[in-house]
Amino acid sequence: MSSIEKKPxxxxxxxFGALFLLVFFLSLSRGxxxxxxxxxxxxxxxxxxxxxxxxxxLAALCGASLSLAGLYFQYVxxxxxxxxxxxxxxxxxxLGAVLALLFFGETWVLPSALFLALLGLVAVLRxxxxxxxxxxxxxxxxxxxxxxxxxxxxxxxxxxxxESVASLVFWLMGGFQNATYLRCAGLAVALLGACFYGLYRxxxxxxxxxxxxxxxxxxxxxxxxxxxxxxxxxxxxxxxxSFSGIIGFVGLIVPHLLRLAGFLRAEILIPLSLLFGASxxxxxxxxxxxxxxxxxxxxxxxxxxxxxxxxxxxxxxxRRRELYELV
Amino acid sequence: xxxxxxxxxxxxxxxxxxxxxxLDLSGGEMVAILGPNGSGxxxxxxxxxxxxxxxxxxxxxGRTLPQVPEKxxxxxxxxxxxxxxxxxxxxxYYVVLTGRYPLLAGRGYSASDFKAVEKLLDLLDxxxxxxxxxxxxxxxxxxxxxxxxxxxxEAPVLLLDEPLAALDLHHQHRIMRYLRDYVRRKDGLVxxxxxxxxxxxxYFRRFLLLRRGYLYGDVGVxxxxxxxxxxxxxxxxxxxxxxxxxxxxxxG
Lengths: 327, 252
Description:
Chain A is mostly helical. Chain A has helices spanning about 1-5, 10-30, 40-75, 90-105, 110-130, 135-160, 165-170, 180-200, 200-205, 210-215, 220-245, 250-260, 265-290, 300-320, 320-325, and strands at about 130, 135. In chain A, α4 crosses α11.
């Protein structure tokens, strides 16, 4: 009994924390201009504090937020394939942001993104649920529906408002070029709130993975819990999309790898998803900055989407049963 | 203890209606619900667990169901649905442990929870499977895990919807003996939907007979005649005395 219950949780937290710090400082020191973190000259110091630090911080916070959002969507949709991207939440949030930018002005970007993200999620839930259950395949299809409509609408808006094309493309292929300390602070507040909400209710979160009857008959306030998790996931998605555009699949890949490694309970999945997700996106951002020569940048969303494609290939080939729920 | 008092219960689900004019279920009882498919057996259990809307009144331990807060209600009542589904991967041990959720006082499970789980893993021969993922198990193994989960709560009232359907004979009898002892020890109540008449006659003393959504009979083991059973089940049934028991035979 003790072998399971006393799994050295603290050791894994330290391990993933160390991994994050390593990636974080590596990412600070590398880029178009290498910076010596220990003996920076005046120019390096300015690059570090004004450009690179906010950027790497935003990447870390986005990685953690997308992973947590993905995890929460997985509890709401009762399957491990849900995340901001596959549920269509990212695309509808991006549509909200673009709409606000074109018609209402920049202050409305975040509320509009949140509103449309929620709208898209409710649509997916409505389309995909059948007698208190959501099948992974129907959820993915409903997600594709929302994704397609939102992306088509963004393309249409881009076509109609030709003068600001460059700024609109940013929403479709995310990146961290627009990082500021203020944005980091905003995202950090949302992330902390959402994370403590989940940690405090960890055993109840796990119960939402059961069918409705079993969960309700365990004394979990299921419908309220689902609504709140859905809202928090949408909030995290909307904030990340408003600040850094669509970055897909992080919330799918990170919890999935952690589950494969044997971390199954919310109590440990939440903190590890934050650390691993942050490391994952900081590393992806670093790669997007150094892969091309002469200081050119790859949009980080392109990198994560490529990884997401590979990941789905792996699921299709190796874990078909899970995908179609034939078990 | 008078666990359930039901008065003028009506449950509508689509075109189907369940009606139970009067029903009292007390401590120390093993009560089986018998009836053909679609006669309202599961609906009755769901209504008693407070999981579906109903008209009329259901009292649980003296209070109407809405008066008992959910967490407290499910400390008293453990409900095992006919089939359960788990959408995310969890190991057997943890699935059983989650049955103790209503008993949680603080934020996490504690030593008494682990102890209860160990006991049931042992009873249901799940010790070997404890680290396996629930999704990887066979149907019979899953049912044993879910039964262990329902029993882990140690609730005085057990509402079990076909708890033994996918189990082998050895486990069926082992569990029935455990339940008989459990009910005595806790002054508890077992209300179970069963299809196996032989098993029902061997272990249960009281029978609720449902037919087309109506409580057709509420009889003790002595009053349960082949004639009555035949009318409810829609097949001709006879009892064959054998040593101290009655065997059930379907004629024709």
